[in-house]
Automatic annotation (TrEMBL):
Lineage, opening ranks: Eukaryota, Viridiplantae, Streptophyta, Embryophyta, Tracheophyta
Name by which UniProt lists this protein: Subtilisin-like protease SBT1.9
Family named by the database record: Belongs to the peptidase S8 family.
GO biological process assignments: proteolysis
Keyword terms of this UniProt record: Signal
Length: 348
């Protein structure tokens, strides 16, 4: 077999580079890529290996051939198993263009920045301590597992004590992941799980320093939404002595699992989808998404698509539609079967 001439290889690579516009050789961005699993070659043991090989093929010059290898580094940020079929990866415009022409590619969306989207509500809903109504009928949400994709949780809060809670249901498959200033012993029969996801934001900001690399909440949003959803009874609660009374969540006997995907009021869709992906496999009953983006079309919103995947698994999805003052509330998730809530107010 004849040996390839190194000089001729350099000429071919130069021609390949010249044949693409300069715009395609720009810096990389993070993309969420949907793939058709039925197109996976039989040689691969699983779709994760297939994705890695596909990315290696385009990173190595775009030959378009996915081959099995164990020696090359992984270019994947996330592999998604449940929320969507696909992955998140950092790709240049040229690499994305090459990927679009490979077998199995369905679609891609640019990883987008999300924003976090707050108590007489129990009275409005008829939740009271009488012997009739939604609370006693549902036994106060006993053994319902609520997963929240948010900014984390402050486990020491009195709302997350497990007084009066029964044993954790056998259907729960999740875990309490240790990290900075947060260890697994901080979970209990109320707060039964905690995970954190930040590979997406790290891919966007590689030099970012994570001082709290754990599920602990440094923003307050996730602790707030968790206590609203399923906070345990706290007697003598007040705001600097005002409005003193007993605080409790909407389902005080429900369980809480936190999936931290936010840092400093910032989410990236790639991290949120990874959180939803895990929540589905952990055995969730309810998924709370108090976040949103500016996508106006369902097919442009990977969070909405992941919400549908959760609902197909029998998970009730509660999503926010925004709280932007006098501006119209909106969310691409509203086009799904999820239950959503928005706030609009005016001074007129």
């Amino acid at each position: 077999m004849a040996t390839a001439n190194p000089f001729s290889l350099w000429i071919l690579l130069l021609i390949a580079a010249i044949s693409y516009p300069t715009s395609l050789l720009a810096k990389s961005d993070v993309y969420i890529v949907h793939m058709d699993l039925s197109a996976m070659p039989r040689a691969f043991a699983d779709h994760h290996s297939w994705y890695e090989a596909t990315l290696s093929s385009i990173k190595d010059g775009g030959n378009g051939v996915a081959t099995i290898t164990t020696t090359k580094p992984s270019y994947l940020i996330y592999t998604y198993n449940n929320a969507i079929h696909g992955f998140a990866a950092s790709l240049s415009p040229l690499e994305l263009d090459l990927l679009k022409h490979l077998p199995g590619f369905v679609s891609s969306t640019l990883d987008v920045l999300l924003k976090a989207d707050t108590t007489h509500t129990p009275d409005f809903l008829g939740l009271n301590n009488s012997n009739s109504g939604p609370w006693p009928a549902s036994n106060y949400g006993e053994d319902v597992i609520i997963g929240l994709v948010d900014s984390g949780i402050w486990p020491e809060s009195a709302s997350f004590r497990d007084d009066g809670m029964t044993q954790v249901p056998n259907k729960w498959k999740g875990e309490c992941v240790s990290g900075t200033d947060f260890n697994s012993t901080m979970c209990n029969k109320k707060l039964i799980g905690a995970r954190f996801f930040n590979k997406g934001i790290k891919a966007h900001s590689p030099d970012l320093n994570f001082s709290m690399n754990s599920a602990r909440d440094t923003d307050g949003h996730g602790t707030h939404t968790s206590s609203i959803a399923a906070g345990n009874y706290v007697k003598g609660a007040s705001c600097f002595g005002y409005a003193r009374g007993s605080a409790r969540g909407m389902a005080p006997k429900a369980r809480i699992a936190m999936y931290k995907a936010m840092r400093d009021d910032t989410f990236y869709a790639s991290d949120v989808i990874a959180a939803i992906d895990k929540a589905i496999s952990d055995g969730m009953d309810v998924l709370s998404l108090s976040l949103g983006n500016t996508a106006s079309n369902f097919y442009d919103d990977p969070i909405a698509i992941a919400s549908v995947a959760a609902m197909e698994k029998g998970i009730f999805v509660a999503a926010s539609a925004g709280e932007r003052g006098a501006l119209p509330v909106h969310s691409a998730q509203c086009r799904t079967l999820a239950t959503y809530c928005g706030l609009r107010y005016s001074r007129s």
